[in-house]
Amino acid sequence: MLDLKNWLNPKHYKRLWNVGPPGLALSVLLICLTLQYETAFNIKRYTTGGLLVNVFFVLVFLEMLFILFWTLFSLPPKNRGKKLSKKGIYSFIRHPIYTVVIFHINVLTSLWYGSYLLLFLVPLQYLLWSKMVIKEEEYLVGIFGQEYIDYMSNVSRFIPWK
Predict the structure, then answer these.
(1) pTM score of the predicted model
(2) 118/157 Cα distance (integer angstroms)
(3) Distance CA 81, CA 13 (A)
(4) Which residue of 36, 69, 108, 156 is surrounded by the most CB atoms within 10 Å?
(5) What is d(CA 103, CA 160) in angstroms, rounded to the nearest whole number?
(6) Domain 49-162 maps to which CATH number in 3.40.1670.10, 3.40.50.2300, 1.20.120.1630, 1.10.1060.10?
(7) CA-to-CA distance for 76 and 59, rounded, in angstroms?
(8) pLDDT tens-digit profile of 114-155?
């Protein structure tokens, strides 16, 4: 028999996904527009394919995979929104997947295309995501209460130091 008390409310599930997909779409759109802008105005790009750039690309990519896998092990998808995880990567940052989108996707795309402008896009994306995630955090405070408020005061949003 299904325990409805512990079952994830469809409205709750929809709310949890309210920031991620639109934020990812906005991030991808900003990256595409930046690359189009660079091409349209013939803005100089740096040379890709050199050993140092390739090594840096591989290191950033491996770090991204490490964060994503650590996220899965720290809080499996079936427990998201039902349990507050403060272990694993969640003991360092509150939103590891958003961190990957903000920092890793921009840096990897910049390294791939040799784009200086994409590196300047990182602070803008950081500010946009910071504004978007406030609603999600308010929602999580509604679910987990004082425990989440305490967690927010001890753990940074995207960067593992304050």
Answers:
(1) 0.84
(2) 22
(3) 8
(4) 108
(5) 13
(6) 1.20.120.1630
(7) 25
(8) 999 999 999 999 999 999 999 889 888 988 999 999 999 999
